[in-house]
Amino acid sequence: MDEIDIYDFDKTIIPFDSGSLFALYCAVHYPWVLICLPVISVAGLLMLLKIINFTAFKKTCFMFVPLIPLEKAVKKFWDKHEAEVYKWFLEKEKRNYVVISASPDFLLNEISKRLSFNHLICTRHNKNGIITGENCRDEEKVLRFEKEFPNAKVIDVFSDSLYHDKPIFSLATGQCYHINNGRPEPFNFSDTYGKD
After folding, report:
1. What pLDDT was estimated at residue 177?
2. Which long-range contacts (C-beta less than 8 Å, at least 24 apart) are formed by 88-95?
3. Which of 28, 107, 129, 195 makes an SS bond possible with 62, Cβ 3.0 to 4.6 Å?
4. What is the predicted pLDDT for the residue at 133?
5. Structure confidence at residue 58 (pLDDT)
6. Nearest to 103 by CA among 73, 52, 62, 67
7. What pLDDT is recorded for position 11?
8. What is the largest CA-CA distance in the chain?
9. Across-strand partners of 120?
10. What is the pLDDT at residue 85?
11. Which residues fall within 8 angstroms of residue 117, CB to CB, at 6 or more apart?
């Protein structure tokens, strides 16, 4: 049985939400993508009104992808932001690990190569920037992990989100770490979430 650690990505390994910051980067550097803003705004409103779910909203968020030179944009984005990766992550002596994120594959594949992640699981998108399958968050992270690593024993789990990442924290047989102000703070799962 493989022993493996799990790391969230956004606000865990880096101090920001990469998908949102990339969208902003594209709006600044490729301002014509703002033509998509009315559709994204309407989808956001429909989500707030609970007419559509979060995944349906996310399907509109990167609809601008066909309007930009994606590979160039992603490389330049990480050229600018790679230095912001938390030092604790870079310096930590790590066992076999997987990074699991709701952020898009077209964005994280590049930083995964640069930082030599052992494994990466994230939200899949097609060439038009539309999500294929489910958004990789909450319980979906566990489903995707167990599908790719059916015989793994999870040791430690690292994430900034106690709310969204309870499902992956529940897999830890070693230690749970909440990333708070860029620092991993250990906590006990049952003390935080209760026994059930």
Report:
1. 97
2. 88/182, 88/183, 88/184, 89/7, 89/13, 90/115, 94/5, 94/118, 95/3, 95/4, 95/5, 95/155
3. 129
4. 87
5. 86
6. 62
7. 97
8. 51
9. 99
10. 97
11. 97, 98, 99
Which tokens is 162 given? 């106690």
Retrieve residue 16's tokens: 């920001």
Across the 196 residues of the chain, what is the mean pLDDT of every consecutive 10-residue run?
92 96 96 94 93 88 95 98 96 93 97 97 94 92 96 96 95 96 93 81
CB atoms within 10 A of CB 157: 24
38 burial level (CB within 10 Å; 0-12, 13-18, 19+): exposed
> Look-up: residue for tokens 């790391």?
7
Q: Are 83 and 45 in contact (CB under 8 A)?
A: no
What DSSP line would sit under 41-70, residue for residue?
Answer: HHHHHHHHTTSS-HHHHHHHHTTTGGGS-H
